């Protein structure tokens, strides 16, 4: 099912698509990073002068991330928190963020401070022409093994789904909210970015790509490189391919 002319006409009659945005941060044990990350986002969005909300998704953190997030929300009514009682996984955190978003656009980046939200504003104008902005890291600040794994993963996903995406898992993406009203997401783990892009592109949504700088993590620990997480993502990847191919045949 492709989004059609009526959808586009309804959207255009609603005014500037970039005038309303939900920004969310999936967080797991990010007590050293979340406050600075959110406060920087507030300053930037206030300067833009647009209608916005900020959502912190606390994915069952075992440190003070949840408390810090709740305190931030108590101080600013534009900030809200989604708390998972236990750690449900990266995909589940993203799904919660997309469900909680209420604005025309939805943007997410990780709460670990490895991206500069100050690079978001130039992307907003692109949403008049495209449905998704998928960024790619120009100077990925990870070790060599992670870089090689990421390159191989991106190439495999693109091959299986006929996509041309430079950095599947780059956590700096901007979407039209309507996309998530029209697709059903299943992944609660590392497959989530691939699943969103594959489902959206198969339905005819358009993607553009832009570079974004990547900064070293200054606190906390990465969790995505565990063998269990990787093996699960591969299993779900091939299940997703079968499902999308079946939908195309029907």
What would you call the shape? globular
Provide a count of the helices: 9
Helix content: 40-55%
CATH superfamily placement: Spore Coat Polysaccharide Biosynthesis Protein SpsA, Chain A
User: Can you summarize the main beta sheet?
Assistant: 7 strands, mixed
**CATH topology (level 3) name:** Spore Coat Polysaccharide Biosynthesis Protein SpsA, Chain A
What does this structure look like?
The protein has helices at 5-12, 34-48, 65-75, 90-100, 121-124, 144-161, 179-182, 192-202, 227-249, and strands spanning 20-27, 51-59, 79-84, 105-109, 132-137, 172-176, 207-212. The chain has a seven-stranded mixed beta sheet with strand order 3-2-1-4-6-5-7, with helices on both faces. It has a single domain, classed as Spore Coat Polysaccharide Biosynthesis Protein SpsA, Chain A (Alpha-Beta Complex). With 250 residues, it is an alpha/beta fold. α8 packs parallel to α9. Mean pLDDT is 90; it is low at 4-14. Helices cover 42% and strands 18% of the residues.
Summary of the model, kept short:
This protein is of the alpha/beta class. It has helices spanning 5-12, 34-48, 65-75, 90-100, 121-124, 144-161, 179-182, 192-202, 227-249; strands at 20-27, 51-59, 79-84, 105-109, 132-137, 172-176, 207-212.
Secondary-structure blueprint of this entry?
Layout: H1 5-12, E1 20-27, H2 34-48, E2 51-59, H3 65-75, E3 79-84, H4 90-100, E4 105-109, H5 121-124, E5 132-137, H6 144-161, E6 172-176, H7 179-182, H8 192-202, E7 207-212, H9 227-249
Parallel strand pairs: 1-2, 1-4, 2-3, 5-7
Antiparallel strand pairs: 4-6, 5-6
Helix pairs in contact: 8-9
């Amino acid at each position: 099912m492709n989004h059609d002319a009526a959808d586009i006409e309804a959207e255009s009659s609603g005014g500037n698509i970039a005038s309303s945005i939900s920004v969310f941060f999936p967080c797991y044990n990010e007590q050293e990073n979340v406050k600075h990350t959110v406060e920087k986002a507030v300053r930037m969005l206030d300067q833009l002068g647009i209608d916005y909300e900020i959502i912190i998704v606390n994915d069952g953190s075992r440190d003070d991330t949840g408390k810090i997030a709740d305190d931030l929300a108590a101080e600013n009514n534009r900030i809200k928190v989604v708390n998972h009682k236990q750690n449900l996984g990266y995909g589940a955190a993203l799904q919660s963020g997309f469900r909680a978003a209420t604005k025309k656009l939805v943007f997410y980046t990780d709460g670990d401070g490895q991206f500069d939200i100050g690079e978001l504003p130039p992307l907003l104008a692109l949403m008049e022409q495209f449905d998704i902005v998928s960024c790619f890291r120009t100077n990925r600040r990870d070790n060599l093994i992670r870089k090689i794994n990421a390159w191989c993963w991106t190439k495999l996903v693109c091959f299986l789904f006929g996509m041309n995406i430079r950095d599947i898992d780059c956590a700096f993406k901007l979407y039209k909210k309507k996309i998530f009203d029209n697709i059903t997401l299943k992944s609660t783990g590392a497959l989530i970015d691939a699943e969103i892009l594959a489902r959206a592109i198969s339905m005819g949504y358009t993607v553009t790509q832009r570079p974004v700088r990547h900064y070293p993590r200054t606190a906390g620990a990465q969790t995505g490189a565990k063998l269990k997480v990787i093996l699960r993502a591969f299993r779900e990847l091939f299940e997703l391919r079968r499902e999308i191919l079946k939908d195309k045949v029907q």
